[in-house]
Design a protein that fits this description.
Length: 298
């Protein structure tokens, strides 16, 4: 029995792609798979470049990339622009995967070279496309650098020591501890070296408080907090806060005299006192904070 005899209707009415004429039973938006794929576009470089240029800036001072006032990275902005473009063309349910994403910013050219290979699933078909293009990037001073340039600060961290001047090593260690707790949104406007110690002008009271706590935790001593009315903003009072960090009065290596005993300090116990060895007997002594004022350094 022939095909016509078995199914005369099917044999008489065959399915063809209206674009290329190939015979097929599977259609994608009325086209065969090959014609449908040929008409697909995942990456529209001009549209992506324009969206990135409009949404991101690079700060010439700190070199950071910003979307509005929020710090970001260029790769994330480009990938977001690609996803948005594909979603707009092929629907929000279209899954997108980045197989390759290389983005190199050229400061001299004020642009970024972008190389992408993207895969998306459209109408149950996996579609992969590669593109290479240039994205111009606008330069503008970010809000943080603008505030630093204007001398803005909301708190001062004053680093001092009881009954003495902090050593250079102590100040360097304190500064390192202070900078270690900075978040990306926080900053130090300036450092001022004084004969009695060092002042750090910082962007917020919360930042200053964390700095003071970190210094005291690792170097000993204590800190005190005070605030002063600076002005009003939006109907609310604005204060500037000062954090006075006082390092221990004695350091490792000092020899102190207390109650007739000569003690070589070999350990500082943060928040409690110091330990050392009595030079004549070799006995270990612990001197609490409350007794240190009565001691004398040799």
């Amino acid at each position: 029995m022939t095909e016509y005899e078995r199914n005369p209707v099917r044999s008489r009415w065959r399915s063809f792609c209206p674009k290329c004429g190939i015979e097929t039973d599977t259609f994608f938006e009325n086209l065969c798979e090959a014609c449908f794929r040929a008409g697909l576009t995942l990456l529209a470089p001009d549209r992506i470049a324009e969206e990135v240029r409009a949404s991101v800036i690079v700060c010439p001072h700190c070199g950071g990339f910003f979307k509005g006032n929020e710090r970001t990275d260029l790769e994330a902005v480009v990938e977001d622009a690609v996803r948005r473009a594909i979603s707009k063309t092929h629907g929000p349910e279209c899954p997108v995967e980045f197989r390759e994403a290389e983005i190199a910013y050229d400061e001299a050219a004020r642009s970024a070279h972008v190389c992408l290979r993207v895969q998306a699933r459209i109408k149950d078909l996996d579609v992969v496309e590669r593109a290479e293009f240039t994205v111009p990037v606008r330069r503008a001073i970010c809000a943080q650098c603008s505030r630093i340039a204007g001398g803005y600060y909301a708190a001062i961290v004053q680093i001092r020591a009881d009954w003495r001047t902090p050593t250079e090593e102590e100040l360097e260690a304190a500064v390192e501890l202070a900078y270690a707790v900075l978040s990306t949104e926080e900053f130090v406007t300036k450092q001022q070296l004084l004969k009695e110690g060092l002042d750090l002008y910082v962007s917020s009271a919360e930042c200053g408080r964390r700095m003071a706590k970190a210094i005291v935790k690792h170097r000993g001593g204590n800190y005190f907090e005070s605030r002063k009315l600076y002005g009003r903003r939006g109907g609310r009072e604005v204060y500037r806060v000062t954090f006075l960090v006082r390092l221990p009065g004695y350091t490792v290596g000092d020899v102190i005299e207390l109650a007739g005993k000569r003690i070589a300090v070999d350990k500082i116990v943060p928040g409690e006192g110091l330990e050392g060895v009595e030079l004549q007997t070799g006995e270990r002594y612990f001197v609490p904070l409350r007794d240190q004022k009565r001691a004398k350094r040799e």
